[in-house]
Amino acid sequence: MTPEPQSFEILVVPEHIENLRGASPADRALRSAVVEATGEQGASGYPRYRGEGMEADIDPATRSIEALLVDGAELDYGLTAMIAPDDRGRGRGREDRTHERPANG
């Protein structure tokens, strides 16, 4: 069993960005926050993460946000939240790049 991640980056984006045509959701984010594990279990039954004005219950196995408050309130209509991809320079993406071999070596 792998340990639960200690942090995630949450992106708040407009719902209508379903078809990004190659753009990253992070490029369209209206707000982002890095949330850290609190050690608590949220009302949804998933681990609670908190930081930068956001409080979320996140399923670490599926990287799904099960509950979210932004500045103490639910998201406005027309907005959605998602976990930023690992390749944004945090977590695994950074580790993977450090193990690449130089092209001429």
The helix content, as a percent range, equals 10-25%
Strands, total number: 6
Outline the low-pLDDT stretches.
89-105
Instruction: Write out the strand line-up for the largest beta sheet, numbering strands in chain order.
Output: 5-4-3-2-1-6
Shape: globular
**What percent of residues are in strands?**
35-45%
End-to-end distance, in Å?
36 Å
Question: How many separate helices?
Answer: 2
Q: Class by helix and strand content?
A: mainly beta
Quaternary assembly: single chain
Most strands sheet: 6 strands, antiparallel
**H/E order of the elements?**
EHEEEEEH
Task: Report the average pLDDT across residues.
Answer: 82
Backbone CA Rg: 15 Å
Written overview of the protein:
This protein has helices spanning about 25-30, 90-100; strands spanning about 5-15, 30-40, 45-50, 55-60, 65-70, 80-85. The protein has about 100 residues and is mainly β. It has a six-stranded antiparallel β-sheet with strand order 5-4-3-2-1-6. The radius of gyration is 15 Å and the shape is globular. Residues about 90-105 have low confidence and may be disordered.
